[in-house]
Amino acid sequence: MENLDVVVVGGSAGGLSAALTARRHYPKKNVTLIRKENRAMIPCGIPYIFGTLEGPEKNLMPDEVFEKNNIRLIVGEVETLNTGGKKISMGDGQEIVYDRLILATGSDPLLPPIPGMDKENVFPVKKDLPYLRSVLETVNQAKDLVILGCGFIGVEFADECRKNRDINVTVVEMLDQCLKVAFGEEACRCCQEIEEALIQNGVNVITGTKLTEVLGNEKVTGVKLSNGKELKADAVIVGIGVKPNIKLAKEAGLDIDRIGIVVDSNMRTSDPYIFACGDCASKVSFFTGEPCGLKLASIASQEARIAGANLFGTRRKNQGVVGVFTTMVNNITVGCAGMSEKWANENGYEVVSGEAEAPDRHPGSMPGMSKLWVRLVFNKINGELVGGSVRGGSSAGELINTISACIQNRMTADDIAIFQIGTHPAITASPGAYQLINAAEIALKTIKTG
């Protein structure tokens, strides 16, 4: 039986970030990470192994990081957790006593209660290397592929699976637009342009329709839609979301709610010596404090950096989930952060917005220029930024992160309007046309006079 200072269970985005943070904040403690996978996948890169990366081996987290940071890696599965004895038991019989434990056990893919979901070649999206190899082999041989769900995962799978293949790809979405849950009504142009880009790439996009049945005997041969139409399908990829992996925590008697393992703002569970982060942990909204089911690798990493820092003393607080998304199809980048106007209104906010669009280079004839559009949503009462959307070239990807930082720091329209910025003709919009600042200035007109 071993006695260890810090043990992290789970090796994806949350687990790795938690272990690294613990090492940096507590250099005199030994840190051990346990994961069941021989190699860990980069979660956000999974759709790209079907096209751009040409295989799952190019989407692996580097194990060199463990040796470089003096973190011990154990490949194995934790079967039981004894909170009273501060002990975990492994599948091979090994027992480990911990001083502090971080649970980063992640999530499992959701499968909707649709007849036929258990048929061969119906694939939920799992973060498992051998499994993804088999999915890739099937997709490479398929003639007709159906993707269920046109959120960010569905969009990226649809686009990537069309690359370098003679394959019919159809994505089925029950809402009337792709990506609509994240962007809301007011930014529907972002959704529309992504749909158009998918169609230009040869993807069939069916919206406002549900998948009601998977057809075939043992193996899928097609799907049936709520409008009565049937589609051929050699394979189906299911990308509609995930559920928290809480089995270990639940069996150990930790507090659980409908979203995951209950944690406080320090990421501490109901046991003072156990922390949790990532998809397995419960979450609240940054804006309302109400439960939030959003699960992203970026959120997992942020929570992990809080948990790892707080193991032996409170150093960081979790303010809740802002929610930041971005994706790209055909060099069109779209992103959103925080609340849409509709969501804000539904939660009792009175909001105003401002939009600005301009070239992201100056002058506009500079090589690599693309039009960059920004929409900002502000609380009308106090002027604080509560949401934003972007559309443009690759520069939009980092701009939405800037918008998220402004939201998290409760910056007002006035604060943003007087940003001190650095500009360069080959890199940014001109100082006078800087979209973030101008969108704030336009919103200020309504905030001050409305």
List key phrases describing it.
alpha/beta, FAD/NAD(P)-binding domain, globular, 3 domains, seven-stranded mixed beta sheet, five-stranded parallel beta sheet, 450 residues
Short recap of the structure:
The mean pLDDT is 95.
Report the structural category: alpha/beta
Radius of gyration: 23 Å
Instruction: Please give the largest β-sheet.
Output: 7 strands, mixed
Query: Strand percentage, roughly?
Result: 25-35%
What is the domain total for the residues?
3
Structure description:
The chain is an alpha/beta fold and 450 residues long. The chain folds into three domains: 2-108 and 243-309, FAD/NAD(P)-binding domain (3-Layer(bba) Sandwich); 111-240, 3-Layer(bba) Sandwich (FAD/NAD(P)-binding domain); 331-449, Enolase-like, domain 1 (2-Layer Sandwich). The chain is built from twelve helices and 22 strands. α4 (152-161) links the parallel β9 (144-148) and β10 (168-173). The longest helix is centred in the last third of the chain and has 15 residues, at 435-449. The radius of gyration is 23 Å and the shape is globular.
Helix and strand layout, with pairings?
Blueprint: E1 2-9, H1 13-25, E2 31-35, H2 64-68, E3 71-75, E4 78-82, E5 87-90, E6 95-103, E7 107-109, E8 122-124, H3 129-141, E9 144-148, H4 152-161, E10 168-173, H5 180-183, H6 188-200, E11 203-207, E12 211-216, E13 220-225, E14 230-232, E15 235-238, E16 242-244, H7 247-251, E17 274-276, H8 297-309, E18 324-329, E19 332-338, H9 341-346, E20 351-359, E21 371-379, E22 385-392, H10 395-408, H11 413-417, H12 435-449
Parallel strand pairs: 1-2, 1-6, 2-3, 6-17, 8-15, 9-10, 9-15, 10-11
Antiparallel strand pairs: 4-5, 5-6, 7-16, 12-13, 13-14, 18-19, 19-22, 20-21, 21-22
Helix pairs in contact: 1-8
